[in-house]
Write a structure and sequence with these properties.
Layout lengths: L3 H21 L8 H9 L6 E2 L2 E5 L4 H7 L3 E8 L5 E9 L1 H4 L4 H7 L3 E2 L4 E4 L12 E10 L4 E11 L10 H4 L6 E10 L12 H18 L66
Antiparallel strand pairs: 1-2, 2-3, 3-4, 4-9, 5-7, 6-7, 7-8, 8-9
Length: 284
């Protein structure tokens, strides 16, 4: 019995390690089919969203590889008014996606946060989303001897089509084998202030962009090896269907009655075989 306390401690430690390892993906969970599917879908994100046109941007491949995320698009969208939004959308497991966020990465690159990130819900989004998208956002500044560089970033996460911006994303998405993270970045002039969110062009862009990519990223239809979702049969258009009160022929229209005079079999005897020339017989 004197060893019982040690056994209890070992059991508790073992269970705790298993639970922590599962939720943190400590042992590098094998790449799931779902993550492969999520990554393939990134190829289908359109470059044209309403009056916003996208151009792909280069990413340092070594830096991306070091992030251990699975796939990405990096694209700058511009509208007719010259406004620009940089989109960085990545796929990966929760373990890797949730630890690389702007409040760490951009600060490490020499930016200062004007204020702590705040949660912001984008209202009046076009139909197609299961819930109003929520993001974290703040203003980042980098000063140099000649000028200052100001950017606002909105970032959020989703594994099921609901975009969320939790202050602690790692525990919020613990154990998820496949998910997305998105940054939407705008460059601001020197007059920008930390609280100036409503006039940011990201809001107009997001209201168009997020409903557009929703069925692409989160559809139940599988994606094949070419990155194309399985096609579903198009629903019949109401224009192709007759109106409910359309005149349809009666079931018995133009059909002879049961006692109609039909020719008797005796009225038209079959021709005798010998009346056919030899060269017209079947099989010859």
């Amino acid at each position: 019995m004197k060893y019982l306390p040690f056994v209890v401690v070992l059991v508790v430690l073992g269970i705790g390690t298993l639970i922590e390892g599962k939720f943190s993906d400590r042992w590098g969970q094998a790449k799931s089919n779902r993550l492969s599917d999520f990554t393939e879908r990134l190829k289908l994100v359109p470059k044209k969203i309403g009056d916003w046109e996208g151009v792909d941007e280069k990413v340092n491949e070594e830096e991306f590889k070091a992030s251990n995320c699975d796939g990405y698009i990096s694209r700058t969208y511009r509208n007719r008014d010259g406004q620009r939004v940089n989109v960085y959308l990545v796929s990966g497991s929760a373990r890797h996606v949730t630890i690389h966020t702007p409040d760490w990465c951009y600060v490490g690159a020499g930016y200062n946060m004007a204020m702590e990130p705040q949660q912001y819900t984008i209202e009046n989004v076009e139909a197609g989303l299961p819930s109003a998208p929520e993001f974290l956002t703040t203003l980042f500044r980098k000063e140099d001897p000649i000028s200052s560089h100001n950017i606002r970033i909105f970032w959020g996460f989703s594994d099921d089509g609901n975009w969320r911006g939790p202050r602690l994303p790692k525990p919020a998405f613990a154990g998820k084998s496949a998910m997305y993270k998105i940054y939407m970045i705008t460059e601001l002039d020197g007059r920008a202030v930390a609280g100036d969110i409503e006039s940011n062009p990201t809001l107009d862009f997001a209201r168009r962009f997020l409903p557009e990519i929703q069925p692409i990223l989160f559809s139940d239809s599988p994606v094949d090896a070419a990155g194309v979702p399985a096609a579903s049969a198009p629903a019949a258009s109401s224009a192709d269907l007759p109106p409910a009160d359309a005149d349809l022929p009666a079931a018995d229209a133009d059909l002879p009655s049961a006692d109609a005079d039909l020719p008797s079999a005796d009225n038209k005897p079959a021709p005798a075989a010998e009346s056919l020339p030899d060269d017209e017989l079947p099989g010859e």
